[in-house]
Amino acid sequence: MALTGYYKTFTRPRTHRPLSMLKYDPVVRKKVLFLEQKRGGSR
After folding, report:
1. Run means of pLDDT, 10 residues per run, the chain, 43 residues
2. DSSP symbols for 1-43
3. What pTM value is reported for the model?
């Protein structure tokens, strides 16, 4: 949510609700909220 361009990748079962977690962002040097987004696929 800091919109710094830093991202983390995780795998999870597709049946669970969308993932959101607080993790450390080294760009802003503090914990920020990471929200799940759809993967950008090439068509």
Report:
1. 76 78 87 80 59
2. ---SS--------TTSPPPEEEEEETTTTEEEEEE--------
3. 0.54
